[in-house]
Records
---
Amino acid sequence: MAPPKRKAKPTLPNQPTRKSARLAQQHPRGLSRLSTTSHHDPPDAWTALAEQAKARVSAYRRHGKPHEENLQPSLNAFIDWLPEKGWESIARDILDAKTDGALYAVFHNLLTALVAPMKARSRPPSITPSPLPKREENVEAVAATLETPETRKRAFRDSCFKRDKYRCVITGGTDTSHWKELGRPDDMAHGQLEAAHIIPFAYGSWDKSSDAPEHIVRAWEVLYRCFPKVREAGMQVKNINSLSNGISLRYDIHLQFGEFSIAFKPTDTDNVYELKVFPSYPTGLRPTLPEGPVEFTTAEDAQDLELPSAVLLDCHYRLAEILNASGMGEIIERYQEEWERLKEYANGSLRHDGGTDLEQILRTALWTHVEV
């Protein structure tokens, strides 16, 4: 599918008229000084900016750095698929990168500070800083807002299930535990249900005995920079367990949602989405997916519970398009798989016979520490 065309006043789907709508009017404390891009230029100037940035990307020459083959398709995909303000910010960062080393740093910052945290199965690795001083000022502003980490809460799961009628929002299948409570009806499809975070829970989790670690701070800064509406909607650490950030999904679909092989594409109707299934979605699981649109509604006894945020779902969808167009997601998957293999190989410790491949372990564990 082709990227969306640039418009004079691009807009995102409206936020649901619940708590999430009220959050959209709030700005997290301390973030008003985040550097942003001016948007008073005419549409022709926006087109020229995108073309100039892509020309700079095409001029990049490889220098033997890791994953360089993904740099050009990745940066072009960010320009094509990020929302208003987000793509302009990245385009200006690209144009500010006067050397290939600086341009590689822009790419690697997006890879380690956005793609890796959004796909991380556990604590993400350290993050490559942005090469631009103004982005470091943003990091300081974000750090001032991250006070207390969140913990996984049963209430988040229970409220998601209640709002979504104890059903997967995609397939309509009932949670198996709830199916048992209903008397195991023969005519009711059921399966293991999970409450999925749209913005991963890892964004709000760290050792509460310390301040927010640098990798968390930088991850939020890049998320806000690429998706300004996420910040404007009030999403921050304390809201990571908000119902606006949750949906009920069958366990296998939850896994694919986290892998960005399936996403909710916005439509012109509030709370109605087209299900976008990417080639990496397992073919054996596709027959259970609906062919038509997916509509989010609340159970009759849960009208006070907020629906999933249109802004957060749009963020997930756009990032899914970027990852599938660029191959960035596959980079993270390879490191995740290699890290799990190495942990199993070493069995959590070094071998006494000297057979532990320390070079491979260090290369995998410290893959974000590269010369830029």
Note: Strands lie at 174-175, 190-191, 193-197, 246-250, 262-266, 272-277, 294-295.
---
Amino acid sequence: MKKLIIVVMACYGLNARAQVDESKNFLYFYSDSVVYANSIKLRPDFYNSWQLRADSRRIPQEQVKFFNNENGFFANTRRQTIIGEGSFSERIVQGKINLFQEIARDAFLYDRGYGYGRHRYGPPVRQSVDPRMYYNKGYTDLKKVNYNNLKHDMADNPVSMNLLEGYRKNMNASKTMYVAAGASIVAGLVSFVVKGSNNARLSDGNSFGHQQGFSSMSTPNFASSFLFLGLGAGLAAGGYAVDRSGYRKLEMAVDAYNR
């Protein structure tokens, strides 16, 4: 009898992901067990820290992998943060690859009925896909949105892989342009300082001439300085444009995979 119970529990654990009814409110634990509840709330406590409650019972955040309620579907990002701070991200794209976006929930606004998720103040806004987001497949562990992770998980889709490769090239190009922009701007500023200092020394050296009534003041030529600064600004703008184009390719790669 005990063996039968163990087998049944093991089968439940293995099939928990397939049995989840997302039309109901539920807690999905790291143990792959699912608990349904009438009410699940994420609220600030007395110390302004987030507190998860199911039917008025406090639930330890570190045990909950996902939860679903009337406001949306949320994933625990505690294990993805460096300091292990308890936080949840909302699922904004559901498909073969799910995307999760971190939502800032201000306790002051929450108490005044602004809410979060599907009921937040104003229409929900999906940000462009970027490395600050997380993703997963089904109910597996969250991963950071980056080239190496997605390359492994989207390897079975050639279209997504081509777009992902384009994203990688754009990111490398934008980094190069940003570095070049920084170097040009620094060179321009140094040129300004050097030319200004040289002009000041010349002025001091000719002070005797001024006393005799002669004017030998000359205006320094900052043309090269402006050239460096302009080049730096142009490279920075170009880097930003290439950067944005890369993020669009990343988003297209995810969309192509979910078709």
Note: Helices lie at 2-19, 107-111, 147-153, 158-205, 207-211, 223-258.
---
Amino acid sequence: MPRSSVLRSQQDASLRQRTNVTLPESLLQEARQLKINLSQACERGLAAEVSEAKAQRWQQENQAAIDDWNAYVEEHGVPLAEYRQF
């Protein structure tokens, strides 16, 4: 587990909230046979979904600025391009 995840888990340990989830029975049985920690697996999956949703929201909120910048570069070129060494 990455260090940041460990630290977050330690910090959030006292802030955890119980919840119920509905999963396909066959998936749940297989996970139990493989001794997968359901709470950790659900947390990792949910964290990934939250991260993806935040990235999509940022992209949508900033799309106008990104489009403006791309139009500027298209018209004027990359600023300081003369100093690029690649």
Note: The radius of gyration is 22 Å.
